[in-house]
Amino acid sequence: MRDKLGDEASEAFVEIFNKVDSESRKELATKSDLENVKLELRAEIEKSKSETLKWMFIFWAGQLIAIFAMLKTFLK
Asked: What burial class does residue 70 get, using C-beta atoms within 10 Å of its C-beta: 0-12 exposed, 13-18 middle, 19+ buried?
């Protein structure tokens, strides 16, 4: 590369390449970052599951009350 670009240009190219490489390494996720995201995702899934079960129970209870009320009304 030094033959085609010269000493000064090749040194500048290497500096720029090293700078870009070091900046991109800062943005990479580590194993601990991925583990933290995984734990947060599991917590959100558990929260969503419990919310879904709660609303399903409320819906089923409401349906049973409506069915019993209709049976009581029709069987009088």
From this structure: exposed
Q: What is the mean pLDDT of the chain?
A: 85
Taking the CA atoms of the chain, what radius of gyration do you get in angstroms?
A: 32
Confidence of residue 54 (pLDDT cuts 50, 70, 90): very high
Provide the Cα torsion 61, 63, 66, 71; round to 10°. Answer: -110
Residue 28 near residue 36, CB atoms below 8 Å: no
> What was the pLDDT predicted at 76?
78
Tell how far CA 68 is from the center of its chain.
43
CA distances from 64 to 50, 53, 55, 69, 70 (A): 21, 16, 14, 8, 10
